[in-house]
Write a structure and sequence with these properties.
Helicase, Ruva Protein, domain 3, mainly alpha, Defective in cullin neddylation protein, PONY_dom, 14 helices, about 270 residues, single chain, 3 domains, Recoverin, domain 1, globular
């Protein structure tokens, strides 16, 4: 992986200084030694001889996590479903019905939709550099959520993590039922709206899957659906698709299904006529 650009290095340095109170010289030293991995750099700084006090932000976040747990029903280092949803809706004041939920789960590296770990909570907010109050954390989630529809890298990060958090137990794939729910959240406001001028692609995709697909959704199908979504919004004729492409068979079948409804046929007819 190439090193971050000069601009990215400056951002990481400023974030390191904000998190630790270190000098820019110290920040540069530890960031370079860890390949500019902010979380590792902060940990290395606090465990070095250059600082004697415990990490103030980490200590605050760790104590804060304890106030959010239900001592009777939660394990020591985990918030279970009820505590997690209470935290997200009451403390962060985010919607658990749309992509805001998925943004929060990615920031906190939640192992599942209804679970937040102590390590994920502390490290997530520490790396985010969003302060230690619920209000600051809420603002951070809302800021990221507002970027979903315009910043593809932010959306892609949340989209890919949704597959990880959305699986049940030790399953390697998403159930169709859950995948449809998460696609509905991701491809609607405040997420990337999967529509073009003449077609509601999300609705078409869900209708097709309900009619024709009975299996679970593996990682490749999940990721390629995003790629297809981006291309179909930009080119609703589907002229980017061809039978010899590297699309999974379910995408090929979906395009054929669309052609059968007169959707995207103009692009296909133009190719055939050449």
């Amino acid at each position: 992986m190439p090193p971050p650009s000069s601009a990215q290095q400056k951002v990481l340095t400023a974030q390191f200084v904000s998190l630790t109170g270190a000098t820019e010289r110290q920040a540069t030293k530890f960031l370079k030694s860890t390949g500019y991995k902010i979380s590792e750099a902060v940990d290395a700084f606090y465990y070095s001889n250059e600082v004697k006090a415990p990490p103030p932000i980490e200590s605050k976040l760790d104590a804060q996590f304890d106030t959010l747990r239900d001592d009777k029903n939660d394990e020591k280092d985990k918030m279970e479903l009820e505590s997690t949803m209470e935290y997200l809706s009451s403390k962060l004041k985010i919607s658990i019905e749309n992509a805001e939920l998925l943004v929060a789960l990615e920031v906190l590296q939640a192992p599942s939709v209804g679970e937040i770990t102590r390590r994920g909570y502390v490290d997530g907010w520490k790396v985010a550099g969003a302060g230690t109050t619920h209000q600051e954390h809420s603002l951070h989630i809302r800021r990221l959520s507002s970027m979903l529809s315009t910043n593809h890298s932010v959306f892609k990060k949340v989209y890919k993590y949704t597959f990880v958090a959305g699986r049940e137990g030790d399953q390697k794939a998403l159930s169709l039922e859950n995948a449809l729910i998460y696609w509905g959240m991701l491809f609607s406001t405040p997420g990337m709206v999967w529509k073009s001028e003449n077609h509601d692609w999300l609705d078409l995709w869900k209708t097709f899957l309900n009619e024709r697909w009975t299996r679970s959704i593996n990682k490749d199908m999940w990721n390629m659906t995003l790629e297809f979504a981006v291309k179909s919004v930009a080119d609703e004729s589907l002229s980017f698709w061809n039978e010899d492409g590297a699309w999974p068979s379910v995408i090929d079948d979906f395009v054929g299904w669309c052609h059968g409804k007169g959707i995207g046929r103009q692009g296909a007819m133009d190719v055939d006529a050449e």
